[in-house]
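Morning!

This is the sequence you dropped in the shared folder:
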Amino acid sequence: MSFRFDEDEFRNRAGRLFPAPPDVPRRSDDDLNPDARIIAQGVTPRPAAVLVPVVARPAGLSLLLTQRTDHLSRHAGQVAFPGGRIDAGDEGPVAAALRETEEETGIARHFVEPLGFLDTYLTGTSYRVVPVVGLLRPGFTVTPHAGEVAEVFEVPLAFLMNPAHHEKHSREWQGRQRHYYAMPYEGRYIWGATAGMIRNLYALLYGES
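The structure's back. Tokens below.
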């Protein structure tokens, strides 16, 4: 089946998203590592949310991502969705994702139309992440947070939703070989939890789960 990757088609397929965040996480950093798990058992993960921003470009949809600065103590230099911890003052994961997006990228929340949720995702750093899928209307201004975000960029959704680009890479971590999804694109290395969530977006809307 071929897809147009335009706004009308995406809105139609977005009906497959979860209307509320799933209570039980079904995706994690351990998905490809049944014999080399790193997610601690018996530890309550910290709540977090990210925005999965699909930009409604007339020439075709794209996915907006951030490149973290190199000096951060965690995830330095990595590609990520905008997002972070859910604070006590946030009215749920959507509010947290929109707040964090505005803080990290300067994109005002009124440009974002939340459409639904991906599977809740557990990270090896003990976060329980709720991915909020939102349609991002063009016309926004990007002002990256100088202390956290080196760059904000877009990748065509058609590229990311092609399973041929969902590569499986591996590296040694604490004496064990760990496997993960990676989606290299024009010098960008999209991998780990971000790639795992993109893979989940593909499974829910365009492929097989």
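Headline: Residues 192-205 form the longest helix (14 residues).

More detail when I'm at my desk.
O.
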